[in-house]
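S1.2 Input.
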Amino acid sequence: MSSVLYDVPGPRAIARNRILAVVTIAIVGAFVGFILWRMAVTGQFSYDKWYIFTYSTVWQRVIDGLVQTLAAFVAAAIGSLILGFILAVGKLSDHAVIRVPVTVVVEVMRAIPVLIFMMLLYYGMPTIGIRMEPYFAVVIALIAYNGSVLAEVIRAGVESLPNGQKEAGYAIGLRKTGVLRLILMPQAIRAMLPVIIAQLVVTLKDTALGSIITYQELLYVAKLLGTQATYGSPIIQSAIVIAVVYIAMCLLLSWVATIVERRISKGPKAGAAPKRGKMVGGETSTTKLIAIQVGTDSETGRAT
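S1.3 Output.
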């Protein structure tokens, strides 16, 4: 079976792909084996190198770093989503006086690396008499960068929808705000949810940049533990432990995102669908909301 865009590989292509797969696995396996061998030779698996993690105070410090990481991530994630929606609406505006400045702001914030933004806020602001705590410098920098990226994601999601969606909203008397809020935005968010979640994962990992400006998150704790000469400077061991924590957090966030995506894609259950002309359990459907807004616009004289 074949299509215009894809041809099923023949026997030679299948054999070639299998050879490439085996060679790739062998190279990766050899590299990993070499790293493990070097770690064993240099004593990285010895008890002395891992002894520091037998102290409860060390794990308490790791937990404190985890709390700081999550505190920065939660604030940055919420702020990025809010800023992303605001900037996306601004870029979708029909008025150039709004659209052009918002576009400039988005492009500038996307162009500045997060680390430079953090350093400007933490080290640069005191030169003009404004001192900022590391936490706020990290959060503001993450919100500015990721909010601008999410703005482009949401805008692209809205503009990727068929024009008929927007025209249908105008045909029933909705203004642009109503079309955007009730018709376009819900569909764009549903379509772009995987990209939004992926950007939130990036936000979580970018909190590690806060260690450069002395924000005491997980990477800062890893560097602190790794420089303890009394315990053999276990920098690799500390990095492995902190990496496992980051991987666990990213997997948890991806798992939550998968659940949310499945629930959104399923939509309302068939048995719970409201009958025509009625609402079940007092829930208001999108059609009802549209009708309410049209009625409101008619009363104010703004409906067509």
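S1.4 Remarks. Residues 269-284 have pLDDT under 50 and may be disordered.
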